[in-house]
C-alpha cells in the first residue's frame, strides 16, 4: 500500500503544481510566445487577449505535470544514485513521458496565443486535425523533447543541490516548502535563460503551417541566417521571469501539497 500511496501522492501533487503555475502565469507565457513568433509580436496579438488559449492549458497542464513527477520519483527505483547525473537522467526520462501529454496542449495553446487559429478549444482541435491529422497534435514533439531534456538536465540537479546545501546549512534533513521553492526559482531562471534558443525553435516548429515538418536544427539555422543571432534569444526576458516566478510557484505547490497529502493518505 505504501507504493500505491506514493504514486497517488506524486500524481495529485504534480497535477496541483502544474495547474498552479500555468494558470497563474499564463499572460507572461503568451507574451513570450508572441515575441518568438515569425509574424512578429504586434501581428501575433501584442498585449491583447493574453489569456487566449487558456482552456487547452486547463485541460492538459495537470496530467502533464502529474506524469512528470510520477516518472521522476518512480525513476529513483531504477536510477538509485543521488548524483547530479542520476538526477538529470531521471528528469530527462520524466520529460520524455510528460511530453506525450504536454505537446498537444502546447500546440493548441500557442496557435491560439498567436491568433493563427480558432480560439475555442473545440475549434483548435478541429482545425489542427483537418490540417495535419492526428500527427498534427504532436507537431514539434521531438523539438520539445530537444528543448526539455537540456532544460531539465540543468534545472533539477541545481534544484536538488541547492536544497541539500540549504538543508545542511540549517542542520535539517530537508528544506521547507518555501525554501525548496526559492531553490527551484533560481534553478529555473538560469535554465530558462541558457535554453531560450531551443524554446524559440520549438515555438516556430509548432506554429509552422507548411506541408513539411522542419526539425529543430533546421529551424535554428533558419532563424539564425534569416533573422540574426539575437532572434534566437527572443522572449528570453519573459521566459526567464516566467520560469523564475513559475519555478517558485511550481515547486512550492508541489512540496506544500506533498506535506498536506501525508495527512490525507
Over all CA atoms, what is the radius of gyration? 18 Å
| Highest-level CATH class | Mainly Alpha
Integer tally of domains:
1
Give, in order, the helices and strands. Answer: HHHHHHHHHH
Total count of strands? 0
Molecular shape: globular
Query: DSSP strand (E) fraction?
Result: under 5%
Describe this structure in words.
This protein is mostly helical and 265 residues long. The chain has one domain: Mitochondrial carrier fold. Helix content is 73%, strand content 0%. It contains 10 helices and no strands. Helix 1 packs antiparallel against helix 10 and helix 6 packs antiparallel against helix 8. The termini are close together.
List keywords for this structure.
265 residues; mainly alpha; Mitochondrial carrier fold; 10 helices; 73% helix
Amino acid at each position: 500500500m505504501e507504493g500505491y500511496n506514493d504514486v497517488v501522492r506524486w500524481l495529485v501533487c504534480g497535477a496541483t503544481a502544474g495547474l498552479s503555475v500555468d494558470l497563474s502565469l499564463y499572460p507572461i507565457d503568451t507574451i513570450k510566445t508572441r515575441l518568438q513568433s515569425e509574424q512578429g509580436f504586434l501581428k501575433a496579438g501584442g498585449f491583447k487577449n493574453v489569456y487566449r488559449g487558456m482552456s487547452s492549458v486547463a485541460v492538459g497542464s495537470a496530467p502533464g505535470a502529474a506524469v512528470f513527477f510520477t516518472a521522476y520519483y518512480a525513476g529513483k527505483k531504477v536510477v538509485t544514485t543521488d548524483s547530479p547525473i542520476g538526477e538529470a537522467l531521471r528528469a530527462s526520462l520524466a520529460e520524455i513521458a510528460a511530453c506525450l501529454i504536454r505537446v498537444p496542449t502546447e500546440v493548441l495553446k500557442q496557435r491560439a496565443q498567436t491568433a493563427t487559429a480558432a480560439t475555442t478549444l473545440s475549434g483548435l482541435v478541429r482545425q489542427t486535425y483537418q490540417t495535419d491529422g492526428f500527427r498534427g497534435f504532436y507537431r514539434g514533439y521531438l523539438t520539445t523533447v530537444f528543448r526539455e531534456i537540456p532544460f531539465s538536465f540543468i534545472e533539477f540537479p541545481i534544484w536538488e543541490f541547492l536544497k541539500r546545501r540549504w538543508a545542511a546549512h540549517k542542520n535539517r534533513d530537508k528544506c521547507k516548502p518555501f525554501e525548496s521553492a526559492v531553490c527551484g526559482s533560481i534553478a529555473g531562471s538560469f535554465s530558462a535563460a541558457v535554453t531560450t534558443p531551443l524554446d524559440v525553435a520549438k515555438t516556430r516548429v509548432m506554429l509552422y503551417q507548411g506541408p513539411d515538418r522542419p526539425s529543430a536544427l533546421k529551424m535554428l539555422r533558419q532563424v539564425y541566417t534569416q533573422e540574426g543571432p539575437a532572434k534566437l534569444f527572443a522572449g528570453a526576458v519573459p521566459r526567464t521571469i516566467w520560469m523564475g516566478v513559475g519555478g517558485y510557484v511550481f515547486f512550492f505547490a508541489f512540496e506544500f501539497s506533498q506535506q498536506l497529502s501525508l495527512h490525507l493518505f
